[in-house]
Each structure stands twice: as C-alpha cells, then as structure tokens.
Write a structure and sequence with these properties.
alpha/beta; two-stranded antiparallel sheet; about 30% strand
Length: about 210
C-alpha cells in the first residue's frame, strides 16, 4: 500500500489557515498556495537519488552530491492545479510541466476529461500530480490513470487538503501512488465539497465564481 504523508510543519499549517480564511483575496490566496507548494515540495522530493561528484570550491577540491536518476515532471490537474506549479519549479526549475484537464460533472460528480498535453518523454520521468483539493478523489484518480495509460510508472500525488473519501478512492485505485497532503479534513458535504475545506480552489485562485 502506498503511503499517506500529512505535512504538519508549523509554516505549512500557518499558511494553510490563511488559505482557508474566506477573507483572503485572490492575490494573497495565489501567493500562499505558491508558498505552501514550495514547502511541500521539500518533502515530496526527499527521496530523489543522489550521485557523488568532485568540484573545486574557492578553498579546495571536494566530493559532494548532486541529484541524479530520473528527471522530474509536474502535472497539474486543470485548472486549480496551476496554482501549485510555480512553487515546485522554484526548487526544481528543470522539471517539465504537463497538463491534464478534467472537470467534475455537477450531477454525477464523476470526472470528465477535456485536455491532455504531456512532455514527450513523460514515461521516463518521476511525476508529481498536483491539485489543491482531494475531494471525491475521482479527478485525481482519473488523472493518474491517464498517466499510467501513457506508460508512466513513478507517480506521486500532492494536494493541500484531502477528504477521507478522496484518500480512500486514490488508494483503492492506485495502491502504488504516495499521497502528500497538508491536512485531512472531516468529510464531504452533499455537494461534494470538503468540510471545512476552503471552498472552490479554482474560483479563489482566479477570482471567478
């Protein structure tokens, strides 16, 4: 079974409180999501493989380490996932970015695919799928399956807030995908929104209704 990692670092929890607050406007909301994504990326990339190299410092030659192995890819689930991309790229600017477009049918709550654009070598990369909210889990699970259908085998999921229902859905469908979240909330309401959650992440990021 893949692991669930809840990041309870004080900085993440403080910023997440500000993100949840309905008084936080779109600009501050975007900035905070970006900052939390950067902080979470430290943990998500913790196990990247390293290789030893020799360099010359201003004082002496020394052996030290650099990241090696498979290259990274970041795959936001459109549109809310876009708010987390730059925060990761600050740490790994060489990562390639793909996009998967899914929306949730308001009647059935099931994901509907409408767009996919991925790097040509996506199957060779370690991928981080990003979406602020893991609610029913349908969209995240569908996005992960979409990547697997294209030969991707190393996939992680990174979300700000998750509901227990969404975690279970992804774990049931993809027991090889680790899930990284900043908080696990109580439940979903009758409309499929996370409670207490933060509302609609896409609308709050982009100032839409």
């Amino acid at each position: 079974m893949a692991k669930l990692v809840v990041m309870d670092h004080p900085l993440i929890q403080h910023k997440l409180t500000l993100i949840r607050d309905k008084q936080t406007g779109s600009k501050d909301f975007r900035d905070l999501v970006d900052e939390v994504a950067t902080l979470m990326a430290f943990e998500v990339t913790r196990n990247l493989p390293l290789a030893e190299v020799e360099i010359q410092t201003p004082i002496a030659r020394t052996k030290t380490k650099v990241i090696t192995g498979k290259k990274l890819g970041v795959v936001p689930v459109l549109r809310a996932g876009l708010g987390m991309v730059d925060g990761i790229l600050k740490l790994v600017p060489a990562a390639r970015v793909g996009h998967v477009g899914l929306y949730r049918d308001p009647e059935t709550l099931q994901p509907v695919e409408y767009y996919c654009k991925l790097p040509a070598d996506v199957e060779e990369r370690e991928l981080i799928v990003v979406d602020p909210m893991l609610a029913t889990g349908g969209s995240a699970s569908a996005a992960i399956q979409f990547l697997k259908d294209r030969g991707c085998t190393q996939i992680k999921l990174m979300c700000l807030i998750a509901a227990p229902e969404g975690i279970k859905k992804v774990q049931d469908d993809h027991d090889d995908v680790d899930i990284f979240v900043a908080a696990v909330d109580k439940k979903l309401n009758e409309h499929g929104y996370i409670v207490p959650g933060l509302g609609d992440a896409g609308d709050r990021l982009f100032g839409t209704k």
